[in-house]
Amino acid sequence: MLSIFIALLVNLFIETSVSFSVVVPRDQTVAHVGSTVTVPCWITPPENAEALEIRWYRHDQFSNPVLFYQHGKIQDVQEESYRNRTSLTLWSDQSGGLKDGDVSLRLEKLTVQDEGVFHCYVSGESTYGSEEIVLKVTAVGSAPVLFPQPLDDGRVNFSCRSSGWYPEPNVTWMSDERTVLRPGGGSRRRGADEMFSVHSWTVVSRSDAQLVSCSVSLKTGELKEGRLNIQAIISSDSSDPSDPWKALFITLLSFGLLGLVGLILYKNRHKLTGKKPADENCECGGMENRKGYIKVQMSESTGENASVVGDVNIEDLRKHADQISIDREHLHPGLTVSKDCKIVRDGPDYKHTGERFPYELCAFGAQRFTSGRHYWEVSLARENIAPKNYWLIGVAKDGNFCSKDKSLTPSDSFWFLCSDGPNGFYINSETHITLPLTPRPEQLGVLLDYDDGQLSFYNVKERKHLLTMRTRFTGSVAPLFNPGVGDLSPLKILDCPKPVESPVESSQPLLGNSSDA
């Protein structure tokens, strides 16, 4: 009789005890690397969870939790990789928080390693519940960098590179936004940070397409695309003697210069010697190399464009020279700088991983500019040593910073010319346009025209005006330097010699306000 009575009391206690269930959404939670995500979990029927034990953990790490809440507060028992990154949060604005049974997890600074199953475990004095929820992590990488290489048979080999993706992305080639192109080959690489880098290439006939695009995308639909206009980039083929004249004629027509080809070339030659106004040079927008004339222009939708022109008077530029030095307070720890703050290079302890240019190795000029014209020169070679293969030089808005995951684009207030070794030269447009600059500069001149919104680059030894970027500067702007990794030659800021004063100083501008092409 006594045992029956005890059993009845136990059953009565169980029936009258408060019970609950743990609930999570059926769908997986998706978030980007570096973001803050809420992993939802709640108990039903709703009750005050402030007196309950709440434990978030992964895999079989019950005793080494992501977060552990007990006795009304979060306990200092936690997996080390989640320290200072987790807290309890509201699943929605309508949630009443712990008082209404919302035990959702807030996870900050998301990493690829955070992807996977999370367990939400809640227990009381007489009941408990547990559910699993899947966290999916994604990362959208850099804008594809396109590099065209003309082939002897009249076709063009396009190379496409992008990095910083997770999970492994897809690469799609398109021509004229209609036809899917078959890639000729490619490679994929996973770095130490678990991110993917992709390299793909395809061959296109210039007669079959005007526009070629490379899209890198995730299954979630997120993508980045790079585009190049074949006719605007490659305008001649040395295999046909008549093609250079046809391509040159088309190029001259695009600039609105009509007339006899010989006369136009003669006038352009005068402009290249500096006898014509500089604004005409900007309108020309041509750069001669062994394959003909090349004109580069960014998308009009970005409000930015670039042009390439010819010879200039370096002495005129040096009238605007400033004494530039490196700002030690904002120097990347992987760099070393000389005592006079003029020479900077990669440090012996910096280890570069991956195929991507080390954008994070930034050094900024100690000088800040908010108006006027400012010029400086940088040495990229030592005597009897080949010029540097890797460097990045330009300007950035004061207060900016560089990192491995940051895309240094004009929209982020970065403007520069970059040399990425075998990947070639490119400007940091939103579409990463690549430029075949030859010969490789040994001494680079930079002219910042703040008021007119122009940033120009010069090959000082060749006395060539390489490139002009047009934009609109706001706020304070500082010189930007990056010496890359692995070169024997450092990056050295030079003190420009003072030009010889002429009796009459020209009133012509160094750079004209030519309209966007």
Task: Record keyword descriptors for this entry.
517 residues; mainly beta; Immunoglobulin-like; Jelly Rolls; eight-stranded antiparallel β-sheet; six-stranded mixed β-sheet; 6 helices; 35 strands; disordered N terminus; disordered C terminus
Structure commentary:
Mean pLDDT is 78; it is low at 3-17, 235-252, 261-310 and 502-517. This protein has 6 helices and 35 strands. It has 3 domains: 16-138, Immunoglobulin-like (Sandwich); 145-233, Immunoglobulins (Immunoglobulin-like); 281-494, Sandwich (Jelly Rolls). It is mainly beta and 517 residues long. Strand 18 (211-217) and strand 19 form a beta hairpin. An 8-stranded antiparallel sheet has the order 22-33-32-31-26-35-24-23, covered by helices on one side. A 6-stranded mixed sheet has the order 2-11-10-5-6-7, with no helix packed on it. Strands 25-34-27-28-29-30 form a 6-stranded antiparallel sheet, with no helix packed on it. The protein starts with a helix and ends in a 23-residue tail after the last strand. The longest helix has 15 residues, at 2-16.
**Poorly predicted runs of 5 or more residues:** 3-17, 235-252, 261-310, 502-517
Counted up, domains total 3
Query: What's the total number of strands?
Result: 35
> Which strand order do you get reading across the main beta sheet?
22-33-32-31-26-35-24-23
Residue share in helix = 10-25%
Broad structural category: mainly beta
**Given the structure, what is the number of helices?**
6
